[in-house]
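When time allows, look over one protein, given below as sequence and tokens. The question is which stretches look regular and which look disordered:
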Amino acid sequence: MERKFINVILLGFGFMFVFTAFQTMGNIEKTILDSIKQDDSSFTGDGYTSLAIIYATLAICNWMAPSVITITGPRGAMLIGAVTYLFFIVTFLFPRTWLLYVASVLIGAGAAAIWTGQGNYLTLNSDGETISRNSGVFWAMLQCSLFFGNLFVFIKFQGKSHIDLHTRNVVFGVLTAVCALGIIFLMMLRPTRRNIDDNEMTLKEEGPMEAFRGAIRLFCTGDMMLLSAAFIYTGVELSFFSGVYSPSIGFTLAMGENAKQLVGLSGVFIGLGEVLGGALFGILGSKTTRWGRDPIVIMGYLIHMTSFFLIFINLPNLAPFGDTTDTSYITPSPYLAMLCSFLLGFGDACYNTQIYSILGGKYADNSTSAFALFKFTQSLAAAACFFYSSRAPLSVQLGVLAVIGTAGTAAFCRVEWAARSVARAAARAALAPLAPGEKPASREVEDSLHYD
């Protein structure tokens, strides 16, 4: 196995274990904190507020991430970020309202470092032929975290309408150990560098301020502004399926006596969808990119719109706010709820694998800034969603998702189609016979031939 692909596998294992801890916590945080409030009246922390703080801090700190990586390198940035995830999990063993929000700020800053470092490191270990495969493999391994962590929660929450202190501490203790294991894998990552020619510049020659200015310049380009619409959608739907949808199932008492147990099972099905999508597009990456990334994104869009409609008729409008005996247009069905969980995960994989692919291919020479901007836009949208999630009924949240999803998908396809058109024109120009005295294609035409 080639050295760079081994690095991708190690990266996948590191993120799989770190995010087994965090994504499981994000999925159950609202439910867990509501149980802590019942046992301790002095505790007033709110899950939606905590998640909103995390993503708002992540959005702000993403502007500094490229500058940080010029100093620490991608491996150092990922290790620093992973430690903040470990600290966040540990604080749940000592529930204090102020500590919850302080840890939320710290993990937000750490997330900016770990995700920007990840994007840069994945690009350094990929090229135009392997970026789709590596993105798919990494995404599938990462989303195994949803499967394993939530399966554990499903077992521990079985038959419980209230999550007691002992159960909470067992869950927190196990997730702490799993996060620490992920840090060990990240420490095993080996240094690498991208193959470049003499005419190319790399980020290692830039200082922190130049990296910051470069990120701003990139953000103002037309293609990045269009792609930001797709980034926004991934942030809104991320916050919905990771922090709103599964708790809403648990709050729907008409689901039956095991409604709380379904919170973990929902996370398992989301993870199954994510893993299947990532594995599918990783294995078939070289084949699917022949037809472009847009068919996969459009498929994800149609899958998500279907799931939003099914959620609308299955869950009551007040489900995001707490326990409710209300019903929607049909009697709430656990089976339909789990199907929607799977569809949400699979659709999310469609979007994210293709976003990773287009950023790693189109912006290979400026991957640090590109992935930082992706996470900035995505996180800002996620933070906004978590802020209104505690106030907006389910129907409003689904309506927002449908509108933003339509705009984001259209913008992504616009960038993809434009790049394909330029590549075809360049290919025709390169193959055309030269007139007497005519010079070969310019560097710009050569570059356009590298369309992924």
